């Protein structure tokens, strides 16, 4: 039995530094942020008493459906996120631990991050306007579009802005709502030529969409797999690569045609 006793003592001595190491790892801040479903905004409606989309130089139409842009809400880049936080988020569908440099520009102050996100939002709005007017075959010199959405940054609302502009000016092309009266949500960047690009946090955005009444979610085709991973029940995914794809899919939804699926 003496040898067993020595082995037991050795294991006990070894467990002390291991436990200390695990405790240190659990308390050490990690380069992650915690994110959850954020706010949505109907781009056909108002924000703080102002129309999100205002058009001058061209007739506009009343709309009855909703087009929801979606967001995620993330902790600040300097918030201390530790191993238990990351492990907890791993087992939840309403929260995610994301690398900080995916959500925020690396090495920037909070003020610089806010300025960068606002610049990205402004560019996204300009690109969305250009894509929508090109789709409608309207000259920017003759139509003035102003987009207003406070306290939201980044480029991921581009697709929904473009759809909102098209719906405000032309609807479905025959006097009806582009949405068919539905609540349509989505996400995706957009280029002036109408190309739709991927964004981050899609699973969380689908949950925000479902929470706020959407039945259809437009997603960049490259992110179909991510969107399917934790898709809320009753929310229909529609993949999009171009603005024209989104318009054709919405038309198919209204008319009972074939709608693409992820």
Automatic annotation (TrEMBL):
Keyword Signal applies: yes
Cross-referenced Pfam families: Lon_C
Keyword Signal in annotation: yes
Keywords: Signal
Signal peptide: 1-35
Taxonomic path: Bacteria, Bacillati, Actinomycetota, Actinomycetes, Kitasatosporales
Source taxon at top rank: Bacteria
SUPFAM superfamilies assigned to the protein according to its UniProt record, in alphabetical order: Ribosomal protein S5 domain 2-like
Protein name (record): Lon proteolytic domain-containing protein
Location of the Lon proteolytic domain: 153-249
Organism: Streptomyces thermolineatus
């Amino acid at each position: 039995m003496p040898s067993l006793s020595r082995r037991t003592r050795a294991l006990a001595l070894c467990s002390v530094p291991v436990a200390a190491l695990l405790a240190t790892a659990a308390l050490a801040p990690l380069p992650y942020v915690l994110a959850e479903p954020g706010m949505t905004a109907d781009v056909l409606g108002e924000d703080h008493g102002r129309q999100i989309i205002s058009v001058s130089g061209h007739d506009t139409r009343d709309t009855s459906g909703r087009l929801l842009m979606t967001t995620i809400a993330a902790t600040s880049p300097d918030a201390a996120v530790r191993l238990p936080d990351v492990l907890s988020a791993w087992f939840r569908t309403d929260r995610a631990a994301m690398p900080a440099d995916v959500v925020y520009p690396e090495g920037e102050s909070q003020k610089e991050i806010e300025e960068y996100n606002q610049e990205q939002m402004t560019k996204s709005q300009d690109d969305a306007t250009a894509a929508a007017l090109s789709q409608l075959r309207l000259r920017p010199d003759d139509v003035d579009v102003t987009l207003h959405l406070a306290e939201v940054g980044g480029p991921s609302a581009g697709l929904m802005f473009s759809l909102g502009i098209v719906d405000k000016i032309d609807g479905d092309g025959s006097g009806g709502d582009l949405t068919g009266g539905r609540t349509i949500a989505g996400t995706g960047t957009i280029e002036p030529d109408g190309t739709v690009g991927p964004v981050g946090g899609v699973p969380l955005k689908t949950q925000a969409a479902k929470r706020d009444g959407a039945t259809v979610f437009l997603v960049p085709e490259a992110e179909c797999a991510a969107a399917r991973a934790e898709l809320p029940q009753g929310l229909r995914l529609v993949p999009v690569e171009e603005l024209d794809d989104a318009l054709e899919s919405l038309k198919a939804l209204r008319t009972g045609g074939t709608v693409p699926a992820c």
